[in-house]
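BUG: 3D viewer hangs when loading the predicted structure for this chain

Environment: internal workstation, default settings.
Expected: structure renders.
Actual: progress bar stalls at 90%.

Input used:
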Amino acid sequence: MVCSPMLRLRLGSVPPDRVPCPSRMSALELSMRKYAEQPDKNVVRPELGLSFDSLGEAYDFYNLYSWEIGFGIRYGKSRLNAERTKSIQEIVCGCSGKPNAENSRSCMCECPALIRL
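Structure tokens produced before the viewer hung:
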């Protein structure tokens, strides 16, 4: 097999949802407990290393954070692995991206806010 620099073989399988465990705290619950210890910051704070049981749970968590800060969100880029299952999903600010025309009424402003799962 000849490998080209443009195509990369992606191995592995990612399950679509993790089996919920009643003893494991959700990311939202962890964030609320941290807020109880330090009430001067935002209630919902995304941090490196948070884990979610599903993509929907991650979207809801980031949606609460964006509402608290004051911006909207949408699904961004996603990647598929060799088995054609989704392995990476970005949830980005509603204004992320670059407008097609310079003087357009687009709200796209290249906002860097995102969460990558």
